[in-house]
Amino acid sequence: MTDRSTIARLxxxxxxxxxxxxxxxxxxxxxxxxSVLRSLMAQVRDFFQVEAASAALLDDASGQLIxxxxxxxxxxxxxxxxLDVGQGIAGWVVQHxxxxxxxxAHDDDRFYPGVDESxxxxxxxxxxxxxxxxxxxxxxxxxxNPQAGGFDQDxxxxxxxxxxxxxxxxxxxxxxxxVRQAESRYESxxxxxxxxxxxxxxxxxxxxxxxxxxxxxxxxxxxxxxxxLCDTLHISRETCLPALRQVxxxxxLKLDLSLRLPLASGGEKxxxxxTHMSRVDYGGRTAIQWVGHDISxxxxxxxxxxxLTHMVVHDLRNxxxxxxxxxxxxxxxxxERDQSLPILQLLGIAMRSGERMYRLIDSLLDLxxxxxxxxxxxxxxxxPASLVKEAVEQVRPLxxxxxxTIATYIHPxxxxxxxxxxxxxxxxxxxxxxxxxxxxxxxxxAILVQRTDDxxxxxxxxxxxxxxxxxxxxxxxxxxxxxxxxxxxxxxLGLAFCKLAVEAHGGRIWITGGYLGPDAxxxxxxxxxxxxxxxxxxxxxx
Length: 542
Hints:
The protein is α+β, with helices and mostly antiparallel strands.
């Protein structure tokens, strides 16, 4: 017959195994660290029949021991308590990595009395064991004042086993927290990204999307999730599906897509997206991440640069062709001693063509300097009539070939204006050049100069096609181009130069509709269909 001591030992072992099993279940119930430790301390209190139990962990930032959880008496005073390593029984245990069993705690030099002094609790017996991870102590578990008056010989071993389980739970909780924070950061980056992002199933079904997609499509996410990307972005399936299959094979795919997206508010939006697609793990399933970066402005700028290059080459080639033709005829006249060729007239054509090339090149160079405010104006007093005369002389041959008339109306007794003469002459020349270019054959051009208070007002007008009001500010932007009914285009630089040069003098430039007419009326009707007038002012004060 089995003796009673054996039965008692077996019962104790069963009780310990049951306790450890229940403890392991508690530790796997949740990954929230404080919840795990609170449940664990409740288990310790109940199993060891103690007045209080607590758990403290080392804080990486401060290096102190912080009591995260306490149950039983004086729990409120214990939670949040900070001890330096080596301070108190708990600090000693963490410092040395060894358990400590103390009876008569107040007589022990290591004891920290702060909790007892701030509450009606009296600490007598303490069992403290270290929580170990990676070979060093990261915390401590304390069981205080057992009802039996002391701990039996197995208590330290059993509480150390609990601490080992706690270490695993702490490590899992820390890993979970890092994963949660990483997911939170990803979710934040995902939603706050300025680029549209889709998460797609292998067949192109939209599983998730960020806020930028909702803004781009002007539709809520619930209307988009579940649809196919090809249909949502109006991409042909012949283009879309092979790309998705290629990504699923492990390739990182980059495509530029020009899209025409219908909007919920009506109409459609045209944009060019640089798209990047890659295979990702999405909640344990294979998915495709689709990221689009709007490059519409870059594409438009590149197109404008290409157009500008063609236009500049065209504008330089024409006067260069005139120069070469004139020189060839002059060369022929000298070689063949042909007295019938108008050499002086040919030289004049070549010189004027060279001047046109200089003006275009100067505009290109000065535009950047004016924008960066690097140009120092060489202001000198000059008569307005002199500015107008020089500009008209440069443009008149071109106007004569188109049988256009240029009339000037300069009010008498106008004072001299302090200006950088070459810059303002080029402003007038550019405006007259535009007038000649965009006015039909046999058309009329007029220049008016008058005084308005402390400023001179220059007006260059023509009776060609008008400019709609919505385009009048935009055409002063760099690369913004005017186009005549005959297909002639401007370089998009002349008016930008005019605006910068006038503003550098402290003046203003603007456009009104209508032609000034033969009487040079200073207040023409602001019509859109016929005629346009460019005005700019220069201050009279220096």
